[in-house]
Design brief:
248 residues; alpha+beta; six-stranded antiparallel beta sheet; two-stranded antiparallel sheet; 7 helices; globular; Tscrpt_reg_HTH_GntR; DNA-binding; Bact_HTH_transcr_reg; WH-like_DNA-bd_sf
Length: 248
């Protein structure tokens, strides 16, 4: 009679199949608001390129999300069925500052990493020097590959402790996977934080670039994040949008 030894592999210890891992990663991106509820997902080919897998693996992953009621499919493609503001509603304040333009850019890249922030970021956030935190890196370039804007954002311990959506990124902050974080300010507000920000804009000497440093704190004056944005004004424009409160 065969006897199972402690060294025999157990099905419970086996890693989930690739399509399930892709489904989980895609679900995480959908919950982050990368694709708003009701909006159509990219095609299978683009998703396969994004996750570095075959179209068949993507197809299986989408089937998993459909069975769970998280996607709906019609003749126009697959659509997000998560609860939330529908596509076409008022756009949230995007993150980081400057990450969205009136026209799509061809060289946008946004990732997150768990690492040591620049010293000035650590000081602004009240972090112990050398202590790692969640950082967001954003770059945008023209079709010719010329830089237009770059941004580095560091988050405080307060933001990671109180904003669940940000805290989830710690285990996914590999500096490789796409991470837009366009709804970061919405997540902070949902966590009960009232946001106050201050932007310092300076011309860079001997260049055509503008540097914008944004600091965000809450209603208790606790720092939440700091963003350092550099814009090449020869190829881009820095645009600010304000919504004034209604009179009354």
């Amino acid at each position: 009679m065969a006897r199972t030894t402690p060294h025999d592999p157990s099905p419970a210890d086996a890693p989930p199949p690739l399509y399930r891992r892709v489904a989980d990663q895609l679900l995480g991106e959908l919950r982050d608001g990368t694709v708003p509820p009701g909006e159509r997902l990219p095609g299978e080919r683009r998703l396969a390129e994004h996750f570095g897998v075959s179209r068949e693996t993507v197809r299986q992953a989408l089937d998993v999300l459909r069975r769970d009621g998280l996607l709906t499919t019609d003749r126009r493609g697959s659509h997000v069925a998560l609860p939330g503001p529908p596509a076409g509603s008022a756009a949230p304040l995007v993150f980081p500052v400057g990450a969205r333009a009136a026209e799509p850019r061809t060289g946008d890249r946004a990732t997150v990493v768990w690492g040591t922030p620049p010293p000035e970021h650590a000081a602004a956030l009240g972090l112990v020097p050398g202590r790692p935190t969640l950082m967001h890196h954003y770059t945008s370039a023209t079709a010719a590959g010329n830089g237009r804007r770059t941004a580095v954002t560091s988050f405080s311990a307060v933001a990671l402790a109180e904003v669940e959506e940000l805290a989830r990124y710690r285990d996914r902050a590999d500096g490789i996977a796409c991470a837009q974080l366009r709804r970061a300010y919405d997540w902070m507000r949902r966590a009960g934080l009232t946001l106050h920000h201050r932007d310092t804009i300076t011309l860079q000497p001997d260049t055509a670039s503008v540097r914008v440093v944004r600091r965000v704190h809450d209603q208790y004056a606790r720092p939440l994040e700091i963003t350092d944005l550099l814009v090449d004004t020869r190829q881009d424009a820095l645009v600010y949008e304000f919504t004034l409160p209604a009179a009354g």
